[in-house]
Structure formats: C-alpha cells, structure tokens
Write a structure and sequence with these properties.
six-stranded mixed β-sheet, three-stranded antiparallel β-sheet, binds protoporphyrin IX containing FE
C-alpha cells in the first residue's frame, strides 16, 4: 500500500502522447513512486500497483461502479436536456457493468445463464469457420492493415453471430457501435459526443427490438434467444434489460477482442524470438494468450467512484471522486511478475493477470475472447509466412482502452 513517503498529488498527462504510446512505461514510473496518487489535471485518483488495484476491485464498500446515475442527475435532468440523449443514457443505466449490488447481482445471475448455455457452447464451435471465412478473403501478398483486414471483421462477425444478427444486416450493425464507442472509452465531460451517442443508441436499440421479436417467436442458437429464456425463480430480464445487455455485449466484446489480437501481433513483430517460438509451435497457445493479455491487453483501465468520504488504499478519499484503476500498470508490477516488460509466451503464472478485471465485475466474455485470440493469432501466422511492419503506428488516444488505429504490415504467403 502507499506509504507516507509517497507522492500523494501531482499533475499528470494521463492521455498525453507519452502515456498513450507507452502506458506501461508511463504508468510504471508512476507506480514506482506513487501507486495511489491524486491527479490534479483529470481530478481523479490514479492507481497503478497490482495490490492496490486488486484491493480496490475487491472493495465495493468504498468504490462504486455506478458512474451513470450520478452523471444523469447532474447533467441530464434539466428541462432543456435533449430527450434522445437522455434515452441513450437510460440504456447505459441498465448495463450491468455500471451497476452495484443488488441490481448487479440480479442481472449477472440471469445473464450468466445465457453465457453458460449449451447454445453458446455450440456457437463457440463455429468461431474457427468464421475466422476461416475472414482469412480466406485476405490477400496473399501486399501491404494491408491487419486490423481492418482480419481482426475487426473477425471479432465483428463473432459478435454478430452471437447476437443473432443475420448476414444481410451486418454492415449496418457494425456502424452503430462505432458511434457510441468514443464516449464510453473517453470521457463523459465531452458534450460534443452526446448527439452521436444518441443517434447510435436509438438506431441500434430499435434494431435489437426487431431481433427480439423474431427470436421470441423462433428461438435459435444465440445469446439473444438465451437472454429471453433466462429465469431465476419467477424473475426474468425485462425487455429494457435485454436491449441494454445486447448493446453492452456489442460494445464490450468486439473492439476489445480485435484490439487484443492486434496488440498481440504487434508484440510478436517486435519480439522476433517469441515470434519464432510461436511459429515453431513450441508454446502452449492458451498460455501465450494469457501472456498477450498481461503484456498488452486491450483494457487499459477501469473506472470506479468513491462512495463516501473514506480512508482507502492508504489515502483519504472524498465522496464522488473518480478512481482510475490502471490494469496495464498492475499487469507489469515487478512485485508480481518477473521481468514484467518482457514478452515471455511460456511465462509461468504464479498469480493471474487482471486484464479481464477482477472480482464481482470481472469480464463475462473472457472465455470467448480467449478462444477468439487462440484461433486468430496462430491462424494469421499460418496464412502468411512473412509479416513485417510497414508504417507508422498510432494508438487510439483513450484512457480506458488500448488499441491501434491501424496495424500496417507487408505480408506474403
Ligand atoms: C480481450 C477482450 C476483452 C477484454 C480485455 C475485456 C475486459 C473487461 C474488463 C476489464 C471488464 C471489467 C469492467 C469493470 O470491472 O468495470 C469486463 C467486463 C465485462 N465484459 Fe469484457 N472484455 C473482453 C471481451 C469481452 C467479450 C468478448 C464479451 C462478451 C461477449 C465481454 C463482456 C463483458 C461483460 C458483459 C462485462 C460486465 C461484467 C460485469 O459488470 O459484471 N467482454 N470486460
């Protein structure tokens, strides 16, 4: 925990160019001096130590996941609020990830039934075929953006299939979540993004309701049909909760996975010895995926809100203060991982990484994401015997997620 010798306050540039390009270096330096620090610029606590981040994720007495209701009350309750913007936030209010117990517990129990269903198991059996379709479309030689050509279409096709979106609607469907991605991944303080969010959510939710009507009549092997069936005693998910959950899955499950696979490929390209191990089939793919998640996972941080004035993580905190729990820094904490800045695909994990979060809100899609990565990473290497970086890299300037704008490579079979 933070000691009294630590720096407790400073001005940091947590979305500045350096932190965006090299979050492990930037937040790692912060972790060495001040694992829990108040940033006067973002007016937030920045938590970077593994022990501190996991302690916070365990402590739902002091830290709340509900950052939507306070925002609605403060900014969207006035008479001149655009009703469409308000409606969009009403959908977000039903996302289980933004709820505390008892609401969270109830939603998670019901949604978990759908995730654990036989239908989802059968669906996972189709991931390889979905990947094969995408990779067959990719050119044999030339310069490509690996994200645009492979990882984004693959993860989008998985999520669409999972939700039961028919192939003819997929292009339309893919566009909507891009409209509300920026606001969730960035900051709620940026007003210009609300209209975009409202439009995306309106169109997407209308579409999900159409699908619900279809699968209520004729259930099929997809998450939506399973969410409609989920029951706990007499309790079931409401229509609003199902719509919200579908939008959450779309948002939480597609870009995150595409980015993880992209980050993993970049890590291999920058570490030729590990690339050789992977190409030679000398590593356990499941273990390698865990190392990719730890080394440069696509979730960089998690947000919590302080419930009441308290002493937590060794510092005095005030009600409503925002807390950024930096997964990227915790996963490179040398007190937990040997040589944390080295990619070691055969790393022995004494303690688990927290790329999927930790505790009651930990990721519900983690098995699916792992499976997608375990199919796509070796599949990409199998298709092209030569892959070389072929351009400048630019990262999305977001605090919560970690993903490249493009991964330009030159390839040949
Ligand atoms: C590499 C890919 C992924 C990463 C890095 C990731 C990361 C995370 C993290 C860090 C959380 C915790 C958020 C918090 O505590 O506030 C989370 C929650 C969640 N994730 Fe994922 N995720 C990934 C893929 C997926 C997929 C594929 C799905 C669905 C198909 C999914 C569905 C969810 C859901 C529903 C939650 C909310 C759980 C709750 O609040 O109880 N995720 N994810």
């Amino acid at each position: 925990m933070a000691s009294s010798a630590d720096v407790r306050e400073g001005e940091f540039d947590i979305v500045g160019p350096e932190a965006i390009r090299d979050p492990h270096g930037y937040f790692g330096r912060l972790r060495e001096t001040s694992p829990v620090v108040w940033d006067t610029r973002s007016r937030s606590w920045i938590v970077t130590g593994y022990q501190e981040v996991t302690a916070a994720l365990r402590n739902d007495k002091d830290f709340s996941s509900d950052r939507i209701r306070p925002f609605i009350e403060k900014k969207l309750s006035g008479p001149d609020t655009n009703p469409e913007v308000r409606a969009a936030f009403d959908v977000l209010e039903n996302w289980l990830v933004f709820n505390d117990k008892p609401i969270h517990l109830r939603l998670r129990k019901l949604i978990n039934q759908a995730f654990m269903s036989k239908a989802m198991e059968r669906l996972a059996g189709r991931f390889q075929a979905l990947f094969d379709d995408v990779i067959a479309e990719a050119p044999d030689t030339g310069e490509i953006d690996l994200l645009k050509t492979v990882t984004v279409p693959f993860s989008a096709s998985v999520i669409s299939e999972m939700l039961g979106v028919p192939p003819e609607d997929r292009a339309r469907f893919d566009d909507w979540h891009r409209l509300f991605g920026p606001i969730i991944g960035a900051s709620l303080d940026d007003n210009s993004k609300y209209d975009m969010l409202a439009q995306g959510v309106r169109e997407l939710t209308a579409y999900v309701r159409e699908l619900m009507a279809r699968y209520r009549q004729e259930p099929q092997d997809n998450l939506l049909s399973e969410l409609l069936k989920a029951q706990d005693d007499a309790d079931a998910l409401s229509e609003e909760e199902i719509v919200a959950t579908c939008t959450l899955v779309l948002f939480a499950g597609s870009e995150t996975t595409a980015n993880l696979i992209g980050n993993a490929l970049l890590a291999l390209l920058r570490n030729p010895d590990q690339m050789a191990l992977m190409r030679g089939g000398d590593v356990d793919v499941g273990n390698a995926v865990e190392e990719f998640l730890r080394f440069d996972g696509s979730g960089k941080a998690i947000t919590r809100v302080v419930r009441q004035d308290t002493e937590a993580l060794g510092v005095p905190m005030k009600a409503k203060q925002r807390v950024f729990l930096m997964l990227a820094a915790a996963n490179h904490d040398p007190s937990v991982f040997d040589a944390p800045d080295q990619l070691m695909l055969d790393r022995a994990f004494d303690r688990g990484h927290i790329a999927f979060g930790f505790g009651v809100h930990s990721c519900m899609g983690l098995q699916l994401a792992r499976l997608e990565a375990a199919i796509a990473i070796p599949g990409i290497l199998k298709k092209w015997s030569r892959i070389e970086l072929a351009g400048e890299l630019e990262w999305h300037p977001q605090l919560l997620s970690r993903g490249l704008k493009a991964l330009p490579v030159s390839v040949s079979v």
